[in-house]
Amino acid sequence: MRRDEQVAGKPSKLILLEPDGITVDPKLHGYDARILYNELKSKLNRVAGGEFKFIDRAAVSAERARQLGGQVKTSGVSPVTAGADMILNIDLIALQGGQTTTVQYNFKLTDVTDGIELWADNDLIVKRN
């Protein structure tokens, strides 16, 4: 993703992954795509340093509401938060055979400005049942 010219050329790289941006095939019992997202985020941060930033609005929403409501004070709090430059979607698809389960992990990074898909990748893993 970081080697992609369109992604690398963006001056700001704020990435958002909403919970509804993770889709797991119902046939995949016990799979949590959040684990995969966290691994991808960790590797990107390790390799790209501060080049990419990931927005986690859920982590700060309750405190921001208190700040904006005047219940607590924090310097520099603005009613308008930083918006994402790109949206990351993860899709896990399963194909179950007699003795194997094949899982395709699909990643898609879309530009928020124009909806253009900047980067996509996938990985295929075959597991024996």
Model description:
The model has no long low-confidence stretch (mean pLDDT 85). The chain is of the alpha/beta class and 129 residues long. A hairpin with a 3-residue loop joins strand 4 (86-96) and strand 5 (100-111). It has helices at residues 5-8, 33-48, 57-68; strands at 14-16, 22-24, 53-55, 86-96, 100-111, 117-128.
Structural class: alpha/beta
**Poorly predicted ranges (pLDDT <50, ≥5 residues)?**
none
The total count of strands amounts to 6
The overall pLDDT, averaged over residues, is 85
Distance between the termini: 32 Å
**Rg:** 18 Å
Estimated share of beta-strand residues: 25-35%
- Secondary-structure element string: HEEHEHEEE
Count of helical stretches = 3
Q: Helix coverage percent of residues?
A: 10-25%
Q: What is the general shape?
A: globular
Taking the sheet with the most strands, its summary is: 6 strands, mixed
Summarize the structure.
This protein is α/β, with parallel strands linked by helices and 129 residues long. It has three helices and six strands; from the N terminus they run αββαβαβββ.
Observed structural traits:
129 residues, alpha/beta, 6-stranded mixed sheet, 3 helices, 6 strands, 25% helix
List the helices and strands and how they pair.
Blueprint: H1 5-8, E1 14-16, E2 22-24, H2 33-48, E3 53-55, H3 57-68, E4 86-96, E5 100-111, E6 117-128
Parallel strand pairs: 1-3, 1-4, 2-4
Antiparallel strand pairs: 4-5, 5-6
